[in-house]
Design a protein that fits this description.
Blueprint: H1 8-26, H2 29-36, H3 50-69, H4 77-93, H5 98-102, H6 113-125, H7 130-154, H8 188-194, H9 199-209, H10 212-232
Helix pairs in contact: 1-2, 1-3, 3-4, 4-7, 4-10, 6-7, 7-10, 8-9
């Protein structure tokens, strides 16, 4: 049996490593305990249930990416938010089902607070109120997390390309869906055939389920530009 002392961070790091093999649905306290060479009940001293573990896993993800999430030093607010959202996406793509793990969790420490404070300060210095700055940041984050959830659900499963390869390392848990999503992503030929009576919907598949990197960038630019116009005012400089 393992003699190395267990702590929450060690368990979370092992769980994140195992996540890439099992996906979220296959990640169990029993499997993590086996990886740590301990009995499963030992983990309940640290986590009352799986959700508590997911909270710690999400926090550990942020700890490793906090500096990148702060954005670009001395940048304007558009560049800073854009850079931070790219970093958030990279962080989520490092792990199979990373966006699902991250979404809806409660952080177990204040690791997230420093990058959030930096972003809010840049926004308020640019003319946003505290309220509109918070809404701007939350809108960009919601777009990014939602995009990656879909990207990881419909793209190829983890491969050797690494997180920087966008969909190549996004991961997708589960079997093929109604449009053929699975190990290699959506079968767009089969999808187009099923939707032959709906030519616009069929043609949209290429944009929706391929080229995730370009798609993310286009959507993020639209979000940031829209935030500037609706929350800051028409004089905001677009990205």
């Amino acid at each position: 049996m393992a003699t190395t002392r267990l702590d929450r961070r060690r368990v979370a790091r092992v769980a994140l490593d195992l996540l890439n093999e099992t996906g979220l649905d296959g990640l169990t306290l029993r499997a993590i305990a086996k990886e740590l060479d301990v009995k499963a009940p030992a983990l309940y001293w640290h986590f009352k249930d799986k959700q508590a573990l997911l909270d710690e896993m999400a926090t550990e993800m942020v700890r490793g990416a906090a500096a990148d999430l702060a954005g670009t030093p001395d940048a304007d607010w558009q560049t800073s938010v854009t850079t931070a959202m790219r970093a958030l996406r990279r962080m989520l793509l490092r792990y199979r089902d990373g966006a699902k793990v991250y979404s809806g969790t409660y952080f177990t420490d204040t690791s997230y607070a420093a990058p959030v404070e930096v972003q809010l300060r840049r926004l308020t210095e640019a003319g946003f109120t505290t309220g509109t700055a918070a809404r701007a940041l939350m809108t960009a984050m919601s777009y990014t997390i939602g995009y990656v959830i879909e990207e990881q659900a419909s793209g190829p499963r983890p491969g050797a390309a690494g997180a920087e390869g966008a969909a190549g390392a996004a991961g997708a848990a589960g079997a093929a869906g109604a449009d053929g999503a699975g190990g290699e992503g959506y079968d767009l030929v089969a999808r187009a055939e099923r939707l032959k009576d709906y030519p616009l919907a069929a043609a949209a598949g290429e944009e929706m389920f391929r080229g995730y990197e370009d798609g993310f960038e286009a959507g993020l630019a639209a979000v940031v530009a829209g935030v500037g116009v609706t929350l800051l005012g028409p004089g905001a400089r677009p990205v």
